[in-house]
Amino acid sequence: MSPGPGTGPEPETYEEQNVHKVYQQIAGHFSATRYKPWPIVEKFLLGLSPGSVGLDVGCGNGKNLQVNRDVFIVGSDRSENLAKIALQHHPHSTVVADILHLPHRDASFDFAVCIAVVHHMSTPARRVQAIAEILRTIKCGSATAPGGQLLVYAWALEQKNSRRGWDKGDSQDLMVPWVRKAKPGSGEEDQTFHRYYHLYESGELERDIEQAGGLVVESGYEKDNWWAIATPRPTS
Amino acid sequence: MKVITANFVTCAVKECKTSAASFPLHFQDAELEQLELDLQPEFIRNVLPRVDWDSLRITATELGFPALPETKPEGDALNDEQTLKDLHRLLLETSVVEGKLVCGNCGHQYVIKEGIANFLLPSHLV
Fold it and tell me: Which positions are tagged coiled coil (chain B) (predicted)?
């Protein structure tokens, strides 16, 4: 199980094995441990004007769908099991979709969030493509109206105070274990699953956004993650 | 899948996005479910300007709802309680739990199962 697809199968196959399959298997347990939106995500979503329509790409169990009920969000996830869990968050809606082939029209959404998702894409080109695909769906700004905004989050390489303890200089592509504890007395054993991650280094998320045709409006670091707010670059 | 969702999805195939025939996707063999949700008049009033009305009319007809008015209700019409209730019922309370969404351009069928539409493409369409 070597991290990074460079030497192995096609990236699609690699991600199928080392990301998608794992989330399908750990969906229930994963969801039970993910219930609180991160502060910057919450602030972004609460700052939207009522009636805004947007996307939550890689919505997981839908924890960010519960923040604002005055906007309408189409959540999507690659994992059907997670998308099903996310269905419960009204007035929003959930579908199964691939971040590189989103089922949405060009330039039609007021906002999007993509939280802890692009770091699962296993090549630099696919990470940029993922961001470009979301930016494609966001309304472009004009002389009279500002464009829509995308909030992206990715796991940071620089997190020396975290439980994992990685920092600058460590490998950026790695397999991260997820341990599903067996119920006490069930006679089952703990199970460990490995997910592929690309850890973002300082400045990398901004570079990916620029390459994807976006303009970085604001960016920063919050609790072991790099984040950025982007808007599609005006065409003229 | 709530009915309002159909207004904000299209075919996942890249080439279809430039074709007017790919929007809205067309429901087939749709099995509906009604779910009671609190009416939020402000939500309906605020979201409606983003709704593509012509597409919603097509969707509503395909799902067997009575024909919607030709023009989108706006202004004073959105103070009418019955109008708001009807829209609330159609957009948010009605879900398609089983069925298909079909692209009018390439003909690809997206399956809806247990309320979830699956937009993953087979490898030959990627």
Answer: none
Relative to beta strand B116-118, strand A225-232 is: unpaired
The residues, ordered by sequence, that sit 6+ positions from A43 with a Cβ below 8 Å of its Cβ are none
- Express the helix, strand and coil content of chain A in percent, nearest 5 each: 30, 30, 45
Which of A140-149, B4-13, B62-71, B100-109 is the least confident region?
Answer: A140-149
Nearest by CB: A98 against B2, B5, B120? B120
CB of A102 within 8 Å of a chain B CB? The answer is: yes
* Average pLDDT over every residue of B16-22: 96
Q: Convert the pLDDT of each residue in A88-113 to its tens digit.
A: 999 999 999 999 999 999 999 999 99
Please report the ipTM that was assigned to this predicted complex. 0.97
The whole model's pTM is what? 0.94
Contact pairs from chain A to chain B, CB under 8 Å = 93
* Candidates B9, B37, B102, partner chain A, best to mutate (most A CBs within 10 A): B9
Contacts of A149 (CB under 8 A, 6+ apart): A44, A111, A112, A138, A217, A229, A230, A231
User: What DSSP line would sit under A77-135, residue for residue?
Assistant: ES-HHHHHHHTTSTT-EEEE-BTTB-S--TT-BSEEEEES-GGG--SHHHHHHHHHHHH
Question: Residues 25 to 44 of B: which have CB under 8 A from any A CB?
Answer: 37, 40, 42-43
- Interface test with chain A among B8, B92, B96, B124, by most A beta carbons within 10 Å: B8
Domains and CATH numbers, chain A: 11-156+200-232 (3.40.50.150)
Number of domains observed in the structure of chain B: 1
Better pLDDT: A9 or A114: A114
User: Per the omega criterion (within 30 degrees of 0), is the bond before A103 cis?
Assistant: no
Q: Which domain holds residue B69?
A: 3-125
The answer to whether B40 contacts A69, with C-beta atoms less than 8 Å apart, is yes
